[in-house]
Each structure stands twice: as structure tokens, then as C-alpha cells.
Amino acid sequence: MYAGQVVEEAPVRDIFATPRHPYTLGLLASIPGSAELTADHRLPTIGGAPPNPLARPEGCRFAPRCPLAVDACRTAEPELAEIAPGRRTRCIRWQEVAR
Length: 99
Ligand code: SF4
Description:
Blueprint: E1 8-9, H1 12-17, H2 22-29, E2 81-84, E3 87-89, H3 94-98
Antiparallel strand pairs: 1-3, 2-3
The structure holds iron/sulfur cluster (SF4).
């Protein structure tokens, strides 16, 4: 869930092994014990903050914080699209996430 929306759905093993949304990637990268610490020995974080519910951005709600955002992300809200049986993501660049 991000900013009131489901952004990714998949079986638990798939979520942890092969996330397909940048927010999921960010969350998994910050799990204590499994995360690579930053140069100053801190857990990685997702930059920025969730949007104000009364002033959400146009397009993808995660775009202001997303390292993969492109112009198309800011013009239309992504659908929660099925990318494989039992897997859905709300990211137009999920194939880049996979890489
Ligand atoms: S749609 Fe764009 S901004 Fe939103 S999560 Fe995917 S890459 Fe990032």
C-alpha cells in the first residue's frame, strides 16, 4: 500500500524475491538485517515523504519519490495491472524494476 492505494499484489515469496514496484523495492532495501548499510552505517531510506491526501500529485502517487520516474508517470495514474497470473503492480515501468 502507498498513499491509500494498493501498489503491488503477489504471493509473499514473489514479493520478497522479485518485487515489481519501486516502493516495494525501497521497503525491502530498508529491512534491518538484510539491508546493505549506507556509507555512514545507516539503513537505506526512501527519500521524501508520502503525499498530502488533500493534495496528491497528478499521475503516479509515488512519482515524487521514485528513482525511476519519467514524464509519463506524472501525467496519468497507473492502473493496478496484472503482469503475470497472481501478480499485479501499479507501475508502468515494472519491467525496468525487474532489471
Ligand atoms: S509509475 Fe513511474 S513513478 Fe510510479 S512507481 Fe512506476 S516508475 Fe515510479
